[in-house]
Design goal:
The protein is an all-alpha fold. 74% of the residues lie in helices and 0% in strands. The chain is built from 7 helices and no strands.
Length: 129
Amino acid sequence: MHPHEQEYFNVLLQLAVDRFSERIVQRTAGAKNALERLRSDPQGEGVWLDAFVEAFFRDALLDQPAGWAFIVQALSARRLDAPAVLTLVPEAKTYGELVSRLAVRAFADLLRQKTEEALEQALAFGGEE
């Protein structure tokens, strides 16, 4: 990946973390609640991680094969959770669907991690409960 592509990915990720953390803090009435819900049920009420990622991909024009490939390329060195990824295969009917699901899963996993870190940091430095 070229440095300018990596920089673009980093900007997209930071934008996603900012938007997602703000959204779940508002929907769950505080950073502490948001962090607890994100950890316990990232697809649950008020969090809806995958739905956020899919909407974010649409907004950032990443919801097409080149966008999915860009995300997968940017995250190609990350370790994957094989059992979780294998559940994506039977659901996919085309290679495009599979790459789409891989991109969403990879980005969602990283977004969850980075959002947890941001919420922990906000709480540690006097953020709202």
